[in-house]
Batch of 4 targets.
Target 1
Amino acid sequence: MKPKLKVWVTFGDDLKFGDGRARLLEAIEKRGSLQRAAEEFSMSYRNAWGYLRELEAAAGFKFVERAPGGGPRRGMRLTRAGKRFLERYRKFQNGLEGAMKRQFDRSFD
């Protein structure tokens, strides 16, 4: 038996930023490409791009930018603001998970 916590940060009333969007951003940064990141999650490029546009419109800042260069060096990366937001989200999430685990252990031990 173990606890599970889902954490979202909302922008406005509708858009939720949670683990799915965070993992997509992490995959873009790791793979350097939206196309390759989308493939990792069995998403179409169009769906992933729409996901990002919706997020950026709601948040009011850019999460991704095209990487400079041509040929095999072209692609996409996180902006400084995107990296900062993702780091803060993961810090927030990890803090809540630690508190949840402590409370779970106190409650079920």
Target 2
Amino acid sequence: MKKIGLIVNPIAGMGGSTGLKGTDGMIEEALRRGARPSSPARAAKALEALKGIESEFILMCAAGPLGEEEAVMAGLSPQIIDMTVQGNSEDTRELCREFIRREADAVIFAGGDGTARDVLDIAGDKVTVIGIPAGVKIHSAVFAQKPEYAGIILRRFITGELRGTRLAEVMDIDEELYRQGAVSSRLYGYMKVPFDNRLLQGKKSGSQPSDAASQQSIAWDITDSMEEDAIYLVGPGSTTSHIMKTLNLPYTLIGIDAVMNRSLVAEDLSEKDILKLIEEYPDKNIKLILTPIGGQGIILGRGNQQISSRVLEKIDRDDIIIAASRNKLAELRGRPFILDTGDRETDERLSGYLSVVTGYREYVIYRAE
């Protein structure tokens, strides 16, 4: 019988919808802006995959929102570890120490890159890990592409279908610099993950210098095609930043800006700001410009949680514009774009084949799921 350790960072991801670009040191501000916890539901969604094989594993976790509540939500009966909860990253480290002492076969954790670093500090490569994506920024390769995929991977690990492991990168960025628009990612180490390249995400890769010409030609195509009186929500990324530069407008590299008639309407919008903007312009067509994360292919659900399912309800599928260089698409090696809004109906509505702008008057059709 496999022993599985569960860790949930209950505040992970709360800075996303509010436009804070992260939660480290910002939880009070996130709450003030009306942020709601998303990590518990994402953890429960992953654990639902374990239903029906309860006799094959023991699930260990701490009481309350650090794991117990999420396990119960998924219909599981966990073994509770008695520990003093401090309400910070030390909770994660202490749980990891206890899991290793109890000879856990695997640790599944819900959080972001910061949580992965805390697990790495204690677990290293001593135990197999699986990350449930629940943070704002997730550059590390120890995470599944979606919460439900993390559960599928763990189920296959428990049943013995997945036997091999590989070392995957743990990356993180300086959130203070990130909020200022500077993305500086650093490798902190490696952890063992089950060998499943189809469901695990890759580490984030940055744009290559050779992409600059393609990004500019993409920007010319999109700006030349902009419709009069339509509102364009321009998502984060270096590819989309070329659109704002071409329009000679200020922009938020890692936020959401709004443009109408080639003028800036609003910048660095939160989910609440976007919904308010849509209400203020009820007769305007709303369009959304996105670029997939390099090396991962995620177009919704990472770094742009401001574009929530509530926002996407207001946007027609045909009004979503995907921009990506051919090099960025080639990095995916045929893997589909990933939709991870946290709402299954929204993901299903937007899935399928999408048109992607790859250059000036150059387009390809690419699948999203």
Target 3
Amino acid sequence: MAKKKQPAKLSIGEMRLMSVLWKCGPLKLSEAFEQQPGEVGYTTIQTQLNRLVEKGAVSRSKSRPTRYRALIQPEIASAGMLQLLTDTLGGGSIIPLVEQLLLQGPLTKEDVQELRQLLNRAGKKSTRSKK
């Protein structure tokens, strides 16, 4: 059986930086700094990039100027963040997290229909895995 890849555990700041790399592709430190939303210091971006390299989420080129490239997909990074939220806010259950998301704003009929389809697929998957 193939070993399931563990979700990356990234901070909020690291997630913001990853979103810049996913959107823009490989960037130099100065470019990543320019693209970063908000008022984040240059050395903070440098530290975050170094940490992302250590975590295996980003690669650093050997050429000069150094470029940083995302190695993990958004789905892997978001799975880690969602697992942290589920564990922290829901005590391991997704129900409180889903409830909070649903309370954030009005849902359209299309949203409700799509959520029902997701729940149906999840229910079928759950039933198959219990057999």
Target 4
Amino acid sequence: MSTGEADGAVAGATPGTGPGARQAVSEARRIVVKVGSSSLTTAAGGLDADRVDALVDVLAKVRGADQEVVLVSSGAIAAGLAPLGLRRRPRDLARQQAAASVGQGLLVARYTASFARYGVRVGQVLLTSDDMSRRAHHRNASRTLDKLLAMGAFPIVNENDTVATDEIRFGDNDRLAALVAHLVRADLLVLLSDVDGVYDGDPSRPDTSRIAEVRAPADLADIEIGSAGKAGVGTGGMVTKVEAARIAAAAGIPVVLTSAVHAADALAGGDTGTYFHATGRRSADRLLWLQHASAPQGALVLDDGAVRAVVEGRKSLLPAGIAGLEGDFAAGDPVELRDGAGRAVARGLVNFDAKEMPRLIGRSTRELARELGPAYEREVVHRDDLVILHP
């Protein structure tokens, strides 16, 4: 799948999604907007004040129309490149964190000054994957964002690149935006970048068309996914945007994927970019982050009967069905549940420490309760704390 440049209408674009097809956009009361680094900075790094102001002009107008908006903004690392004399985005984590440390302050300062033109205060919220995967942190993040909105501040969310390690990074803000949309119970997610939608081929060819809407993942099954835009200062390409759209849509949140220059049209429900219809219902917060944000701390290997019980029967995992384990995890940590071939079939929160597991493996809960006490007459992973990865 290829992407086109955001320079107005595209020749050969598919007809619109039809009258009322994007009604969910115009009816959305709480919206999460994600903007990529390439839409805010120059290719060499450094913020483009005019681009930031143009985006804020759109967001302030939407916010003033009795709608709530949360902005997930990339750009911290890119903004820190030029001030630190870096010609391109560094590959090593330490220099990325240094650039983020410098750039995050510049980014928020620019947003603060721009929103001040409308008398709007800005609130910064920096998150790591760990914040989304641990229940207490997850609840606190939700409360903070809700309170900022209630108090009239404009929340700006970014990954906390200055402290995130390789093991707990989101990797791109597209996925973070999808999770934030679910976290704040948004009615709509808008993904903005330097590309104006999803195409069914190379947009430079005259026979290529913009895909105006996606009703199900199968609609893109035969489309080759393209790479990132031309700016080269971000980490996300079309692959990450489509995956983020799928995550949000599966959680009951429609998505518009388009370019930053078409932000106003997208938020007004216009026929711009690619519209992803909601394909599922909202799930429990812990299940969404468990599947898409948690970092497994170990693995439990299941026998064939346990795989069937967990995957097909949607049952809890009992000690009797475990054939082995890997890793050094603690009670409450996320772990992978694997079949005999090593394929991860599910992910869940484990109720025991890894050091306790050897004496539990393959034994019935009744036997364990009799020998070790009533605390051991329970599931290793309860079905309410378990998400299926491969049905």
